[in-house]
Amino acid sequence: MDKITQWLAEHSISEVECLVPDMSGNARGKFTPTDKFLTEDSRLPESILVQTVTGDYVDEHNELVDPADTDMLLVPDPDSIRLNPWANEPTAQIIHDCYTRDGKPHPISTRNILKFVLDKYAEQGWQPVVAPEVEFYLVKRNLDPDEKLSAPVGRSGRTEKTRQSYSIDAANEYEPIIEDMYDFCEAQGLDVDTLIHESGTAQMEINFLHGDPLKLADQVFTFKRTVRETALRHGIYATFMAKPMEDEPGSALHLHQSIVDSETGKNIFVNDDGSENERFMHFIGGMQKYTPGFITFFAPNVNSYRRFTPEMAAPTSLHWGYDNRTTGLRVPDSSPQAKRLENRFPGADCNPYLAIATSLACGYLGMMNKVTPSEPYTGDCSSEPITLPRTQEHALSLLAECPEAVEMFGDTFVRAWAAIKRDEYEEFNRVISSWEREYLLLNV
């Protein structure tokens, strides 16, 4: 707390946002006056960890958390403290870790899940390094859920109608929004790197500099809040839905990942002569073998599975390849020290803590169990048969058959996740879509 106290004083902070990432990766918490924050413990009901995306509590609530709806203890992470640049008064935002009443890391906290996985790497003397790439859409304000989303008006007074991959001028259409976004990111110390216009209409991608997985998860968590706030200030929305528009590509959260030796800093995926070693192949093999059972953490929502569509810049199978963006697992061209694997399965709607934890867990299991990968794929992989789950229900059935998920994340967390996602699926399944009314009403 000494570090936090000093920082708050230096920045004349009058209010603190005590933040906890929920299952969806959104911010829960409370606003606290600085003097109260420094003198009293922060607490939140642990039941917020078992809420669905609709705000409902799962039927298994009393089996997963205390039926008395008790509090969990929040412990601020000083490395996560940042200014809130859009607040009206000097405000800090601090991400907190969740602990049970007896002082143990809370088993349903998604930030703790990532820490559990990182501890397994630390036991082997390994330090993972990740670099996320986050895609999102800018869309016109949408007040009617039945109305389709569309691109907002740009500086020219027009909306995009065609694909504008990597177009500088198309990105400049939204320059006022992008400039404010970068200003907010700089004020918060986010390590954002390049921005590009992706292939969808008003679809952007921001890349982060590589670094520590927990710190990068915190940054992606903060970045999502930042982009949404920036867009609202310009009278539009920013969405991280995996597939917000039926005729446009989905949005992903690609993860570049490598592992270095904790003592030497050398990349453990290469030999002394710079060539790839068996450990790298086993990491790839683990990603191939275990991703199906863990896929629900890469694709957490009913909408997520609409992204896994052929010819829409998203993977549909478990193949890997060298510098091949049509495969789900890509090995980019790089120097030996930067040897890494890009995981293209996660959608932009995923919880960054769980996506990073899952990706590293699959690779870890591959290395520990010496899983041999398939041969690298060459050519266009999108023509291959679809082997990924296409529904949330299917993904949850694969999770139920994956003991490795319990091994890496713990039984309580896996049961809580499955309960939440089953409830969300059933809620979604009750809604009759316009497609059904259009084509089935009078034709069946």
Automatic annotation (TrEMBL):
InterPro entries: Gln_synt_N_sf, Gln_synth/guanido_kin_cat_dom, Gln_synth_cat_dom, Gln_synth_gly_rich_site. The keyword S-adenosyl-L-methionine does not apply. It comes from the Bacteria. Residues 110-444 form the GS catalytic domain. Its cofactor is Mg(2+). Keywords: Ligase, Magnesium. Pfam families: Gln-synt_C. The keyword Magnesium applies. Gene3D superfamilies: Glutamine synthetase, N-terminal domain, Glutamine synthetase/guanido kinase, catalytic domain. PANTHER family: GAMMA-GLUTAMYLPUTRESCINE SYNTHETASE, GS CATALYTIC DOMAIN-CONTAINING PROTEIN. Belongs to the glutamine synthetase family. This is Glutamine synthetase. It comes from Microbulbifer elongatus.
